[in-house]
Design a protein that fits this description.
26% of the residues lie in helices and 30% in strands. By secondary structure, the chain is an alpha+beta fold. The chain folds into 2 domains: 119 residues, L,D-transpeptidase catalytic domain-like (Beta Barrel); 39 residues, no CATH class. The strands form 3 sheets. It has a 5-stranded mixed beta sheet, covered by helices on one side. Strands 5-6-7-8 form a 4-stranded mixed beta sheet, with helices on one face. A 3-stranded antiparallel beta sheet has the order 10-11-12, with no helix packed on it. Strand 5 and strand 6 form a beta hairpin.
Length: 198
């Protein structure tokens, strides 16, 4: 009887350990698509956030691939570019590329020297989420091509004033008339469409 109780206790302890380890090891996925200049953030497959970003310009491309964050600094300043502020920096490779907040307009492609820029408030939320989930449980996936985003951005800019509806990066539709009047309609962009003319 004593042997049975001991076995039951061991099995119960193993189950409790397995459940607690699984709960503590939630997978945080940060996916950046340079073609659309968008970031999605998910925990265990559940979408938490979708934000506009600005990635690297030609000659300073944001690296593509899968990465794990290796360093975090809430109050970082660039040592390469005139002490430029990089709040809530999350470094994801060993060459100094990071996801960080920026006070420059976000959503415009080809803006950075290779980093992924976010609105400061969104960068703070992401930084806190990574701190909570742990860097070891965080995966950063970067795909797409900033040249596609640039082509779409140029097409959008050239269509302004033409009277044609254009889709802008935040998913709204703007109808611009020849007189310069503007009507903005809220409409979620299809995940399959690049922003630009539709």
């Amino acid at each position: 009887m004593r042997h049975v109780r001991k076995s039951v206790f061991i099995v119960a302890a193993m189950v409790a350990f397995t459940l607690s380890a699984g709960a503590a090891r939630a997978e945080l996925l940060i996916r950046v698509d340079q073609s659309t200049q968008r970031m999605v953030v998910a925990v265990d497959g559940a979408l938490l956030h979708e934000w506009p970003v600005s990635t690297g310009r030609p000659g300073f491309e944001t690296p593509t691939g899968a990465f794990r964050p290796n360093r975090m600094d809430a109050d970082h300043y660039s040592q390469e570019y005139d002490q430029a502020p990089m709040p809530y920096a999350v470094f994801f490779d060993l060459k100094g590329h990071a996801i960080h907040g920026s006070f420059e307009p976000i959503g415009r492609p080809a803006a950075s020297h290779g980093c992924v820029r976010l609105e400061p408030a969104n960068a703070a939320k992401l930084f806190a989420l990574i701190a909570q989930q742990k860097m070891a449980n965080t995966r950063v996936e970067i795909s797409g091509d900033v040249k596609v985003a640039l082509q779409n951005f140029k097409a959008t800019v050239s269509a302004r004033g033409s009277g044609k509806p254009v889709r802008v990066p935040n998913g709204e539709v703007q109808v611009l008339g020849p007189d310069g009047s503007q009507l903005t309609l809220s409409a979620r962009a299809s995940r399959n469409l690049l922003y630009g003319l539709y």
